[in-house]
Amino acid sequence: MSIEDIAHDVTQFRFCTVALATLQFYDYSLTLPDEVQCAWEGRGWVFFLFLFNRYVPIIYQLWSLFATFWVGYTQEMCNHSAFIHMLVCVVFTLVIQAVLTIRIYAITLKHRLVTGIFVIAATLQFGLGMFMTYSAARFPAHPVLEVDLPDAHLCIYEANRTEEIAYTGLSLLFDVGIFIIVIFRLLWRRPSSVKRPFIVRTIIKDATLYVLLLCTSRVTFVLTSVLTANLGHVTRFPGYTVFVTIMTTRMLLSLKRTSPEDISDGWILDVTTESALEPPSTPQIVHGVNRFSNALSRAEVGKAVPIPLEVIHIRDERPDV
């Protein structure tokens, strides 16, 4: 590799780092008002997932800018930085998969078998990612530069190809599975229930669009990495992390904005518009009416009649035409 090629690669790397940081900070400025108004109201356990997804990548982005342009960045520091980046990306991926798994739990109307499959896949991928991170810590990275080029400091890992293929395969199966289920649940309805306004409202209120974009971006990056034989960058590509962070943040804020006011923590990750608007079945209606009729027949004149809870909770909120 010539000095000109190395200088060109370093310049591209710096330009990419600045562009990604600009994109992330710009999106942060756009979504900060929603975060202050919505996210900080209900501080449930999902709120901590939101904080991790929101601020850990931002902190790391600041460190990346500092490390990229600091002339005192040594080879040893580069090794530590690459290891920390791998660790953050593996944990960050687990957080994203946890959020998507909860959404699948809601979209499939709380189907435990389907949800369990995704939980197992995410757990296996996390375990493999931690093993890869541990292996990277044991074997330091090799310097890219063996020539005297001012202000150039990069390092890479020689990743185990078998481990990278396994990690990539698990990620691909997870995201493709979620994408297929979301599309299937969105389009597969009874003929009388297929109404375009309701589908559009479901996409908006359930943040389905962000879920689809999130899965599409992950699948696209994995396939690109496989086809270009750059598997060593699957868990450490900064652009992928930035885009996924933006999509996940917007998905969580969208769910927060559309959540009912009576939700305790305000995060409806495990509730969907479809399940909330599902009309009561005929046996439920008949049972509620019978309970109400029996209460009226037993009531005395001039006394209040207690209405059964089944009658109170009956709703007939059908999708708009």
Automatic annotation (TrEMBL):
Keywords: Membrane, Transmembrane, Transmembrane helix. It comes from the Eukaryota. Pfam families: DUF6533 (PF20151). Residues 16-59 form the DUF6533 domain. The keyword Protein biosynthesis does not apply. The chain crosses the membrane at residues 45-63, 83-106, 113-137, 165-188, 209-231. The keyword Membrane applies. This is DUF6533 domain-containing protein. It comes from Thelephora terrestris.
